[in-house]
Each structure stands twice: as structure tokens, then as C-alpha cells.
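Lab notebook, bench 4. We co-purified these components, and the gel suggests they stay together. Before we commit to crystallization screens, I want a quick structural picture of the whole thing.
Request: model the full complex, all chains together.
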Amino acid sequence: MINFKELASEYKTPLYVYDLDYMSAQYNALKEAFKGRKSILAYAVKANSNLSIVKHFADMGSGADCVSIGEVRRAFLAGVPSYKIIFSGVGKSDDEIKEAIQKDILYINVESEAELGRVELIAKELNSTCRISVRVNPNIDPKTHPYISTGLHDNKFGVDLNSAKRMYIFAKNSAHLDPVGIHFHIGSQLTELEPIREAAIIVADLVRSLSTINIELKFFDIGGGLGVQYNNEVTIKPYDYAQAILSTLTALDLTVICEPGRFLTANAGYFLTKVLYEKQNGQKRFVVVDGAMNDLIRPSLYNAYHKIEAITESKSAESKADIVGPVCESGDFLAKNYTLPKLEHNDLLVVHSAGAYGFGMGSNYNTRGRSAEIAIKGNTAKMIRSRESFEDLIALEKDFL
Ligand code: LLP
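Here is the predicted assembly.
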């Protein structure tokens, strides 16, 4: 059991706390599910990009799925080998493409015909060959929140099947491109298996049809997206997930690449925040805390539910309250209509499932420094990022005064 009270008093709040042992268990469960097939888990760095977290997975043999050259650099710094690093994203700049080619990563995941042209040109200028994969948009509704749905033609991600085929033929005929993989990622926080299976069938069929024209791919990249339990969702079991994918790959000799983010880190993370005040506006009860939307934006942005546990001596009856932060926005809340006892100044609230897309989506809005981050392994807690000071926040501006 993590002693949240002790951590809050030692490191102050707001504070992120990550349980590395939980992350290891999730990694092992997913890796085990793909047993019997060549597979690479390429941790989606965007979920939680703290170097110590990326290193934790690298030490377990993980690769890295990156969406900016900054994330690629993080992966290298954390010790992920170049041959396990993937670079995806709809809008890679020339400089990013150049650096990725020079760093000789596993492949660049190309998301448009226009991008493929740039990659070829840049590889040519470098007198090099770039391994690529194409992100296919299979036009499948993943049945998740629209902001994190990515596999419909309405979404900006990937290319349709016909464009993908043209891109593979173009790459095959280019001296500077080496088509090695195929990729799809239909969305995040997926709790239904059927859309994933359907997407895999479509993409595996494309692999077969490419094979008939002598384009032999090596990597079948299924993206990430495996959902977790925030509230009472019924989630997909790693074994069922792996079986659904593998069953579509009959007679294909491919290494499966999976890019989990949330599954590995979400429920390993906690966000600790302290109660500042209680207030009542007419009938409406508010609990004002020291953490805010700049620390954890998921509730404000997606109306996402995070379980919140109050650590308090209070024995008073429970009633509903909005838990809000100090940021100057009505949309600044961690929960709405949440049932809590009456709380006192300095009572601690533990926000659960905060290990994915928590700190990483944080900002300095309202000139608020970002929280410290703590990692726990066994009985040891270690600070893996210090709290930002006011000086940190203005460092890039003060020379211009
Ligand atoms: N691979 C690709 C190409 C992706 O776009 C993503 C996530 C992942 C892997 C990892 O997905 P995961 O396993 O974590 O579901 N900020 C949102 C989630 C955005 C996900 C973006 N892409 C949230 O807080 O729910």
C-alpha cells in the first residue's frame, strides 16, 4: 500500500506518484499475451514521457512509439535501442524526418502521400534509405470518445486503403525507401474487441494483397489503444486482444508491434492534491483544491472520470460537490457532482488512474509550475522530476526584459 499521506507531506502537493511495479506487471501481462509470436511492445511515450518511466520500460526490453523528434530523443536518452524506435504522426517537419533517418530508427510511420514524397527526398539528400511503414486508416468506428477516435476517414490520421497501396508501390520502386511495415491505430481507451478485429482483418488482407505484387512486409503494427478501468468499464483482456489480432495473421510471417501507452501507465499513477477550502454557492457545494486543469486536464477536456479518494478524519455525512482548482476557468474541475464527506483544510485527495496523459498534458497556464513526479519501486520512493519553480517558468523570457 502506498502511503499517500507521507508522500504528500514529504514532497508537497500537487504531486504525481507512479507505481513502477504495477507498470512492470502490466508490461509482462501484455508481452505474455503475444507469446509464441515474434512481438515488440513499443511503449507509447506520449502517455507518460518522464525519462525514468521510458527507461523503466526500456530496461524491460520495450521499444518506443514516438510522435515527435523530442520523444525520439527521449527514447534514445532512456536507452531504447534504435531498432525498436518508431516515429509516427501526421505532421512531421523536414528537420524531424532528417534526424529520424540519421538516427537509423526502426521505421518512420508515414501518414500521407505528400509526407512519403518528403521522406524520399530527404533520404535521397542524405544518400540514405529510409525504412517506412504506412499508417492505414481502415475507416472503423472504435466506439470511444470522439477526441480519441482515430480510425475513421473523418479523422486526420493515416491514409485510405487505395492510397496505402499506391504508397507501397511508390516506396518499392524508390531507391531511397524500404517499405517494411504496416500500421493502424483506430483509437484510444478501446473497450470493445470487435472494431480492433475488423481493422486487423482489413489491414492483414492488404498485407496479403501486397505480397502478391512482391511487396513483403515484416512488421504488423497494431498501434495502441487498449482501454483500462477508470470507473466500471468492462475492459479487454490482454489474451483476448492478442488472440483477436493473431487470428487474422494466419500464414503471414510478421513481427507484431504493439504500442501500448495507457494500458501500461494509467492505473499505475496517482495525482495527489490538497483541499484548500470548502465553499457553497447557494445550493452548490465546491471543494477547492490546490491541483487544477493545468496539472490534469482529462476531466476538463474529455469530461473524463477519475476516481477520487479522500483521506480525511472527517466523519460528517457525504454530499455531492464539484472538485475545482485555482485556475481562472469555469472548466477547471477534477470532478463534478462527486460524493464526499465535508472536508477540512489540508485533507488529501488521491485522484486515481492519473499515470497516462496526466503530467504530459500539463501546462503552465496561470503561471503555475508543474508538479513534482515521484516513482515507487518496492518500498522506495524516488523523485523523478522536481517541482517547477517560478524561475523555471520565466527562464526563457527573462533575457528579453
Ligand atoms: N500509437 C499511436 C499511433 C497513438 O496515436 C496512440 C495514442 C498510442 C499508440 C497509444 O494509445 P494508448 O495505448 O495510450 O491508448 N490524451 C488522450 C489520449 C490520446 C491518445 C493519442 N494516441 C487521453 O487522455 O485519453
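The chain is about 30% helix and 25% strand. Worth comparing against the SEC data before the next meeting. The chain has two domains: 4-15+267-400, 34-260.
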